[in-house]
């Protein structure tokens, strides 16, 4: 079976902080990482390949440096990598991204299942997965925490909800977005890393994947960022001193004053 | 089109360098790029891969960075889109809490625009629900009934909502950012080819342009972005539970209910909902809780979550956890608060033995009151805590539970 | 310091570091307390292709050499000096097969070791034969198509858990040091049993056991090399494996140093962090210099061996083992000192490093023997030049 995993390279938000003096974003040697939720998607793709046989192609839309994210996925065991990169993609919102990635997936060819991570930790929108499914015209289920059954024609999954989970069956081809609970991503192997280093990653631009110019990048993005600002920093409040009994008494008094209890 | 440095304004001060989350800006000598300036020796240069996020604009005190927006050639006519809609998510015939909050905010938006506020309610047997929505402020409810719509499923719901939107042309559609809402809104927006902003924390109307200003956090909550959908309709936004206040119920309010059935329509259905399994292990749900007591690495062992549970119980609150505690296997992932767990916004958040790493803060920093209990006075959590208690949590937490039990009797 | 590692070597270092941090760190106290064999870690190393990092590709390894083994062992030992022995001690037993095994023997035993399916152990030491290895009493007499082994080995690392053993036994007592031979003995061979498991000061997750041979029949196909080559095999093996012990010592010392530096920055006394006191600074400076010197010596020796497997490296191998282990003992002792009282408490990971470091000065040739070997080599070289 053919599996396609969509990944994104994101800044490691560990390092992204706010400078209290200037109230702007500062980054101290921010590493770019594979979006954490996408690691679970890659792992699930690899497990499905081990279970069903077939191939895992990993695809990403991003600047040229996103290639390293694809190589990381290859070192975990993915078979092929595709990078969609083009200055014309710059400024894409989630709609334009969904359209672009869908064009890329169509160029890859036949597939059975597209696997995405729940959301990217920079945008946090969780919109691209379902957006890709809509553009490809395939059914989708989000927040998948377990794949119960899969064969050439169907897939049955458990979808995580606020108060439990749903069991949903859908036909192949389909798209799923996965949550952390689905698996534990593997570490790369040495052979995998060496193979990834030598592997050829297909690099495609807008022309290669046959995108309509007015549907990609900024022109293809209905939403635009009007303004970016840093939220007023939350200031630390007061320290409550004393021994545990005193501290408890004082805190409870304050909470009562604030009418929250 | 794109981003450029205004050469005669850039002083090479490098404030923008640190602001770029992708590390793409460099300061080089003007000689290298043959762009001399009478006063300044250096200039900023933006590398390949810039995605126009705009984070560098604010720090530049010289207005030396410009993002030029390309004007698209053809614009769809959006002048006849009117009205604010709220998608009224229901589960097992119960309308979800976030819908009432959207009605509250939606009313404000509708008034600013001078338009009607409507609800779209899909389901089966939702007559009572429709009346409730009117009572909470809807001027009109589109009540679409059908056995296929009883429980949420992607395909029929998307078909129904998109065709209704195409017919009635609302200018704004709001949805709760629930598990259903987030993926449903995405599909609808993609099908309509319109803009969607997820997890908004603020909504406002720019009266002049009639645009919806959609503000949301990005980069894990480190920055806020205000987003607009200038040329496409409807403008769609999802909002999380507990961000806005619930609308006030007015029992005698009048409104219009337009009831329609889809029994005779062929709607696509490519997924089969086989079963719904409830997870009853959580006694008070994290997402709804007004009070959350969380435990972190400082607890040291799984058994020690007992004292967290006791404190939570004494307050009628839910139990949360930091990623460290979940990764160590002390408590299930459903309790995890933080960037890769849940975002919560309770009235009181009590963090016990949690250091306050940015990924955790991101999930709870908008709580009304934050109480931090930690033996390390330098723990970052004290910087955001309303009340900080430096001490041994094994002594403080039980003392707090005891005091609360006394006082709340 | 830049050691001009190749890209593959740097990838290996990064992978070993990740395994150490993500898989070994959470469980190191557990294995030190319970003294259980860390099979789950063997699995992780196997999945990452690290078990065969020094084994040629044709036998299932990744084709690296001693330097690759040292890099992997060093990174693992930064986090825990005992768990890494599942790799290092297996390598000690695998080198004899690599260096002296026939094609059949290599094809038979190496793939499982490279895949992490089997762990190995090297058995030379006996109660009466430690530094004086030639005093071994275990015998192997030829009978038809087999050898019959009798005797006891003690202090064998991985003993009892390993499935493959390389055992040195006397085939001809009359020939003295030319009368020993090396055998590959599989666990569960009738007549091969295990004695007590030792309770040790450190490296407690590594099992150290007695091996008991009682009329143990070993097929003649499992004789390594030729009869009489036993001690030659042992000595050549040590030349390849001593840098590995040195790497273990280096990793332990490096981990101790890094933690000591971080601690000294956080610990505040007299209103300032203790890292601002010259007494601490001088300790750290000396520790860092010696650790770097160990590393330079080990990597240079490893490169020598890998470039020319026939080169004479006894002196260099002994030097790096001697130096790195003495440094490790000194650095861990001083690191505990930097930690003060907390360094003595088992709740903190520092005291374990000091307990683990000690063995590196003792096994695979005590540091006293190392000094003998170095001196002998120096004198021989001088004599050769003089001529």
How would you characterize the overall build of this protein?
- Chain A has 261 residues and is of the alpha/beta class.
- Chain A has helices at 36-52, 67-76, 94-108, 128-136, 190-198, 244-257, and strands at residues 2-7, 9-11, 16-19, 24-27, 32-34, 55-61, 80-84, 113-117, 140-150, 154-161, 164-171, 174-178, 202-204, 224-229, 238-239.
- The longest helix of chain A is centred in the N-terminal third of the chain and has 17 residues, at 36-52.
- Chain B is of the alpha/beta class and 409 residues long.
- Chain B folds into 3 domains: 2-68, Alpha-Beta Plaits (2-Layer Sandwich); 84-261, HUPs (Rossmann fold, 3-Layer(aba) Sandwich), CATH 3.40.50.620; 291-407, TPP-binding domain (Rossmann fold).
- Chain B is built from 10 helices and 22 strands.
- Chain B starts with a strand and ends with a helix.
- Chain C has 12 helices and 10 strands.
- In chain C, β2 and β3 form a beta hairpin.
- Chain C is globular.
- The two termini of chain C are 40 Å apart.
- At the A-B interface, β3, β4, α3, α4 and β9 of A face α1, α4, α5, β11 and β13 of B.
Top CATH class of chain A: Alpha Beta
Order of helical and strand elements of chain A: EEEEEHEHEHEHEEEEHEEEH
Give the C-alpha Rg of chain C: 21 Å
CATH topology of chain A: Rossmann fold
* Radius of gyration of chain A, whole Å: 22 Å
User: What is the multimeric organization of the chains shown?
Assistant: heterotrimer
Task: Indicate the overall shape of chain C.
Answer: globular
Give me the CATH superfamily of chain A.
HUPs
What structural category do the secondary elements of chain A indicate?
A: alpha/beta
Could you estimate the helical fraction of the residues of chain C in percent?
40-55%
Helix/strand order of chain C, N-terminal first? HHHHHHEEEEEEEEHEEHHHHH
CATH architecture of the largest domain in chain C: Up-down Bundle
Structural class of chain C: alpha+beta
Domain count of chain C: the total is: 3
Secondary structure tally: strands of chain A = 15
Tell me the name of the CATH class of the largest domain in chain C: Mainly Alpha
Low-confidence stretches of chain A are none
């Amino acid at each position: 079976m053919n599996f396609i995993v969509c990944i994104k390279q994101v800044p490691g938000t560990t390092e992204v902080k706010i400078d209290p003096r200037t109230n702007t974003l500062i980054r101290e040697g921010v590493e770019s990482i594979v979006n954490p939720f996408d690691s679970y998607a890659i792992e699930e793709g690899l497990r499905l390949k081990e279970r069903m046989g077939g191939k895992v192609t990993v695809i990403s839309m991003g600047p040229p440096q996103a290639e390293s994210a694809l190589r990381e996925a290859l070192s975990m065991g993915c078979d092929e990598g595709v990078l969609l990169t083009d200055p014309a993609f710059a400024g894409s919102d989630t709609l334009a991204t969904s359209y672009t990635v869908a064009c890329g997936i169509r160029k890859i060819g036949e597939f059975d299942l597209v696997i995405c991570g729940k959301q990217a930790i920079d945008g946090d929108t969780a919109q691209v997965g379902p957006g890709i499914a809509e553009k490809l015209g395939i059914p989708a289920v989000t927040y998948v925490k377990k794949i119960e059954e899969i064969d050439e024609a169907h897939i049955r999954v458990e979808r995580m909800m606020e108060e439990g989970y749903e069991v949903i069956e859908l036909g192949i081809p389909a798209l799923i977005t996965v949550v952390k609970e689905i698996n534990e991503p593997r570490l790369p192997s040495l052979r995998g890393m060496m193979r990834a280093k030598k592997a050829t990653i297909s690099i495609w631009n807008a022309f290669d994947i046959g995108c309509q110019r007015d549907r990609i990048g900024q022109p293809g993005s209905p939403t635009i960022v009007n303004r970016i600002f840093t939220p007023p920093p939350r200031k630390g409040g007061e320290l409550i001193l004393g021994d545990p009994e005193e501290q408890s008494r004082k805190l409870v008094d304050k909470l009562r004053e604030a009418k929250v209890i | 089109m794109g981003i450029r440095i205004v050469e005669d304004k850039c002083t090479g001060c490098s404030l923008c360098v640190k602001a770029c989350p992708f590390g793409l800006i460099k300061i080089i000598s003007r000689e290298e790029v043959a762009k001399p300036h009478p006063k300044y020796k250096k200039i900023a240069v933006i590398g390949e891969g810039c995605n126009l996020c705009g984070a560098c604009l604010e720090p530049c005190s010289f207005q030396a960075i410009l993002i030029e927006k390309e004007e698209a050639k053809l614009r769809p006519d959006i002048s006849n889109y009117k009205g604010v809609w709220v998608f009224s998510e229901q589960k097992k015939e119960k309308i979800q809490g976030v819908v009432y909050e959207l009605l509250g905010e939606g009313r404000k938006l509708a008034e600013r625009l001078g338009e009607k506020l409507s609800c779209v309610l899909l389901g089966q047997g939702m007559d009572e629900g429709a009346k409730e929505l009117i009572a909470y402020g809807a001027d009109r409810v589109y009540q679409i009934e059908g056995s296929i719509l009883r429980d949420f499923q992607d395909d029929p719901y998307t078909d129904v909502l998109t065709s209704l939107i195409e017919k009635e042309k609302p200018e704004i559609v709001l949805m709760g950012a629930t598990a259903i809402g987030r993926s449903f809104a995405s599909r609808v927006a993609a099908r309509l080819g319109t803009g969607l902003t997820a997890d908004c924390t603020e909504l406002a109307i720019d009266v002049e342009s009639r645009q919806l200003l959609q503000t949301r956090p990005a980069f894990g909550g480190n920055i806020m972005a205000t987003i607009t959908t200038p040329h496409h309709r409807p403008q769609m936004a999802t909002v999380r539970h507990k961000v806005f206040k619930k609308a006030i119920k007015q029992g005698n309010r009048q409104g219009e209910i337009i009831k329609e059935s889809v029994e005779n329509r062929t709607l696509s259905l490519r997924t089969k909902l086989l079963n719904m399994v409830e997870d009853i292990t959580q006694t008070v749900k994290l997402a709804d809780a007004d009070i959350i007591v969380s435990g972190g690495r400082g607890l040291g062992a799984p058994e020690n979550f007992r004292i967290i549970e006791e404190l939570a119980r004494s307050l009628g609150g839910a139990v949360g956890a930091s990623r460290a505690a979940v990764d160590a296997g002390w408590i299930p992932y459903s309790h995890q608060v933080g960037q890769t767990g849940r975002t919560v916004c309770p009235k009181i958040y009590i963090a016990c033995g949690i250091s306050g790493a940015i990924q955790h803060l991101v999930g709870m920093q908008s709580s009304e009151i934050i109480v931090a209990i930690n033996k390390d006075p330098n723990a970052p959590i004290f910087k955001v805590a309303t009340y900080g208690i430096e001490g041994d949590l094994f002594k403080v937490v039980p003392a707090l539970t005891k005091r609360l039990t006394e006082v709340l009797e | 310091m830049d050691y001009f590692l190749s890209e593959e070597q740097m990838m290996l270092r990064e992978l070993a570091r990740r395994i150490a941090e993500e898989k070994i760190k959470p469980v190191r106290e557990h294995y030190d307390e319970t003294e259980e064999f860390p099979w789950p870690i063997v699995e992780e190393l196997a999945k990452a292709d690290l078990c065969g990092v020094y084994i040629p590709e044709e036998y299932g390894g990744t084709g690296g050499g001693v330097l690759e083994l040292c890099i992997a062992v060093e990174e693992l030992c930064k986090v825990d000096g005992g768990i890494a022995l599942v790799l290092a001690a297996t390598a000690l037993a695998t080198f004899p097969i690599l260096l002296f095994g026939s094609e059949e023997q290599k094809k038979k035993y190496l793939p499982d070791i490279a895949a992490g399916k089997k762990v190995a152990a090297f058995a030379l030491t006996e109660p009466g034969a430690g530094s004086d290895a030639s005093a071994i009493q275990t015998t192997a007499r030829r009978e038809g198509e087999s050898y019959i082994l009798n005797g006891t080995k003690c202090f064998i690392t991985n003993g009892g858990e390993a499935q493959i053993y390389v055992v040195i036994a006397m085939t001809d007592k009359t020939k003295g040091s030319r009368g020993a031979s090396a055998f590959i003995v599989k666990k569960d061979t009738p007549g091969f049993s295990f004695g007590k498991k030792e309770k040790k000061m450190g490296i407690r997750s590594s099992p150290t056991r007695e091996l008991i041979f009682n009329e143990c029949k070993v097929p003649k196909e499992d004789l390594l090399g030729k009869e009489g080559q036993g001690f030659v095999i042992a000595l050549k093996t040590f030349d390849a494996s001593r840098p590995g012990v040195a790497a273990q010592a280096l990793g332990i010392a490096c981990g101790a140093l890094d933690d000591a530096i971080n601690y000294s920055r956080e610990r505040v006394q007299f209103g300032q962090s203790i890292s601002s006191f010259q007494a601490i600074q001088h300790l750290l400076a000396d520790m860092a210099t010696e650790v770097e010197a160990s590393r330079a010596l080990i990597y240079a020796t490893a490169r020598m061996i890998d470039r020319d497997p026939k080169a004479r490296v006894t002196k260099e191998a002994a030097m790096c083992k001697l130096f790195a282990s003495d440094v490790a003992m000194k650095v861990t002792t001083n690191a505990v000192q930097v930690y003060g009282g907390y360094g003595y408490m088992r709740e903190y990971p520092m005291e374990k490093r000091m307990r683990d470091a000690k063995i590196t000065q003792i096994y695979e040739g005590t540091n006293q023997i190392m000094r003998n070997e170095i001196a002998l080599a120096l004198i021989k070289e001088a004599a050769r030049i003089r001529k």
